[in-house]
Design a protein that fits this description.
mainly alpha; 15 helices; two-stranded antiparallel sheet; about 325 residues
Length: about 325
């Protein structure tokens, strides 16, 4: 299978790629979903000219962007959102892992791939897969299939969740909670919530990062049962996100100048806006890192498992949120 539609000399691909990143940064009309589509077009039409750097770049940029988003949040509001979503988070993680194990067995998917997809759906997409993979000694093929499955579903979620939220009649808090529970990866959670409203973005980011912390106990438990000595990856950037919220909430009280307006906005508002732009570029990079070969490699069984888990967690969380939040 040909990996791209046209062949362009690498130096020209690099120039085009950099211009597209600048466009994502400069033009407000380029939202997270549009950036993802641009990235996919790059991947399919000409290919990513810096593909060997893409994984590290997207990981770092996503983490920095999320921390920047914390500078426009209130600690007390974030704490309230986290408390309200705690039991819901625990219940949906347990339900997803159990359902993933059962579906994987029925579809006869190998244990490692099934476990990676289940963890990616239950917690935080690619980050959970990256944390669990070395512990269960997953090979490159299994990791690629799991990441491909999660990415494809994340891409769909980024487009369908905001209009569904409006159609269902979700409040900002309800939609933010639903995104955090039902969408796999942090990038798509933040992208979908930001399309809905700023309040939904704050709720979704807080609950999703609280959910991501479950990587730690889950990794420890998996390591114990697998009797593995693999290194456990701790998502330290979440703690920086919490520090950012604390700084934006309380520091202006003691350093009033930080709350002064700069061109009509506070310093922290500008940092928050930079985080949103960083997220747009992140989704462009994520989209451009996909290839036709990756889609071909996934196969229908893992996709079916991912879809079934996604429908399960999305439907259950929707009815619970509409009934209880």
């Amino acid at each position: 299978m040909k990996s791209t539609l046209i062949t362009i000399p690498n130096q020209y691909r690099q120039i085009i790629f950099i211009i597209l990143i600048v466009i994502c940064l400069v033009f407000p009309v380029i939202s997270a979903p549009i950036a993802l589509v641009l990235g996919l077009l790059v991947a399919f039409v000409m290919g990513h000219p810096f593909l060997h750097l893409n994984k590290k770049a997207t990981t770092l940029l996503l983490q920095v962007s999320v921390v920047c988003l914390g500078f426009n949040m209130n600690f007390e509001h974030a704490l309230k959102a986290g408390k309200e979503g705690f039991l819901f988070t625990v219940g949906t993680i347990a339900m997803t892992l159990l359902a993933g194990w059962f579906i994987g067995k029925k579809l006869k998917i190998d244990n490692n791939t099934s476990m990676l997809i289940s963890n990616g759906t239950a917690i935080c997409g690619g980050s959970a897969i990256a944390a669990i993979a070395p512990i269960i000694k997953a090979n490159d093929q299994q990791i690629s299939v799991a990441l491909g499955t999660i990415f494809i579903l994340n891409s769909i979620a980024l487009f369908i969740f905001p209009p569904l939220g409006h159609l269902i009649g979700f409040t900002d808090q309800q939609f933010g909670t639903w995104c955090a529970i039902a969408i796999h990866d942090t990038s798509s959670v933040v992208g979908a919530a930001s399309k809905f409203s700023n309040e939904a973005l704050q709720v979704a980011t807080t609950i999703k990062l609280e959910r991501a912390l479950w990587i730690i106990p889950l990794s420890l438990g998996t390591s114990y049962f697998q009797k593995s000595k693999g290194k456990i990856k701790i998502p330290y950037f979440i703690f920086y996100f919490i520090i950012a919220i604390l700084v934006s909430t309380y520091l202006p009280i003691y350093v009033p100048a930080l709350g002064n307006k700069i061109g009509g906005e506070t310093l922290f508002t500008w940092v928050f806006l930079a985080g949103r732009k960083g997220l747009v570029v992140t989704l462009f990079l994520i989209g451009s890192g996909l290839s036709l070969n990756t889609i071909k490699q996934v196969g229908w069984r893992p996709i079916l498992q991912g879809v079934m888990l996604w429908v399960l967690i999305g439907t259950v969380s929707l009815f619970v949120i509409k009934g209880l939040v």
